[in-house]
Amino acid sequence: MARGSVCPLSACQVVLVVVAALMATLAVAMLAGGYQAMMRYAVNQQLVIKEGSTAYDIWKETPVPLSLRLHVFNLTNPDEVQKGYKPILEEVGPYVWREYHEKRNVSFHPNSTVTYLQQRWWVWDQEASGNCSQDDPILTLNTIPVAAAYAMKYTVYQYALQLALNMVNEKLFVSTTAQELVFDGVKDPLLDWIQHNVVSENGSYHFLLPILEGTGGGITKFEKFAWFYKRNLSLTYDGVFNMMTGQDTIDNLGKIDNWNGRNATSFYTPPCNQLTGSAGELFPPQLSQKDLVFFSSDLCMSAKLFYNGTQDHGGLNSYRFWGTNHTFANGSTIPGNECYCVGSTCAPMGLLNAESCRMGAPAFVSFPHFYAADPFLLSGVYGLHPDEKKHSFYMDLVPGLGVPAAVSVKLQINIHLRPNPSISLLKDVPDVFLPMLWFEVRAEMTPEMASQVKMLIYFMSSSAISIGVWVVVLLVAALMVLGVLLYNRYRREPPYQLIEET
Length: 502
Hints:
The strands form 4 sheets. Strands 2, 3, 4, 9, 10, 11, 12, 13, 14, 15, 16, 17 and 18 form a 13-stranded antiparallel sheet that branches. Strands 1-19 form a two-stranded antiparallel ribbon. It has helices at 9-31, 34-47, 54-60, 78-82, 126-129, 143-151, 155-168, 178-184, 189-199, 209-214, 218-221, 375-378, 388-391, 447-460, 462-492, and strands spanning 2-4, 66-75, 89-109, 113-124, 137-141, 173-177, 186-187, 224-225, 240-244, 256-259, 292-296, 301-313, 316-322, 352-353, 363-366, 394-398, 403-417, 432-444, 497-499. By secondary structure, it is an alpha+beta fold.
């Protein structure tokens, strides 16, 4: 006789019970948050800045299309302004450049920080600029004599400056082009004279160099003037950053640790000089709706944005943080903000005094068209029309991941023009914060990137967990049905059959 059989009932039962128990345990673990914890851990490992992570590649060389959109204020009544009349401004632009970022000299440290230089460069985009050309003529304030007079506060220095201005036939207003004003630089007779007669070792006025450097020094460092002069492709302009990588704890991801080797700047007094918040590009995941703080090397400070609801980017929800009248607030608006005053100069609400950050020039930063600023500033000029949709500064961040869905950084540069009886060019000018230009750095997640982010968020969501649990429950139910069927078959047929041999 031979023995033929299906598997023994006891073995089948053991297998089914074990598998069903494992499935049930998995379902319980998923309901208890184990699945979400595992997903979060896996995602966090790709968010930290370390070689090989997804975030590192994106951070090192930004793949999101960036653009610099520049609007310049053309001064239409220069002769009247020099006699004390209110400036009439005409906004021209946008002049658009494609912007690129890359991190260089990247060095990781054992304390979960990374040091790097940021190189930025710009390429002219004629299509996005429309009818605007880099060669468009621009009539604007010559900031060189204004900055020099502002820096030389002592009367004896101003007399010497007056002699120099007369000697080189300096003008208060200059006609230039958009390209020269932004990148190439505008030649100036006073800068030429300083470079050849003061800065040069053979200069006949070399003894003036310590005085000029002691009153700001910016006027001795450049042979031309432009708002982004020598910045295109510069490796050192933005300074040396040290940032938290998030490897110690994901809550530290992207936080500024120090800048140029210090965790505080010399441009403002404590606590306004402290470096806090993000280094500007990365934010920890699981964002709350609290204020958002980031450090800007352009502003030489940590700025604060405020929660302003949610935004939809093609089905991808994000938190919007934006600038308000509290972002550039003086002490009368926010008690304690007196530390943003430079010396005895406290700016009106909506202006940041950037004098020390810009080498002694009377430069002030605001939102475009003095949006969210003291109405007094608008009364000083003609031609400004603040508009929330056009001129607000915002960052839209995906809360679960902390990645930007869209960014619109909008800032305006203003020069404090004021009368100076010792300088003939400035004797009768009005006392006004004169807008020079405003720019927007714009970036938005591509549809392909948005789709990938949505998929990732879905797998991290409770909906995915619920679906997973139901799949496991159905599998457990299927195993139970299979067990019943096997048991019924076993009851109908003997486990072993004797086969008669002939």
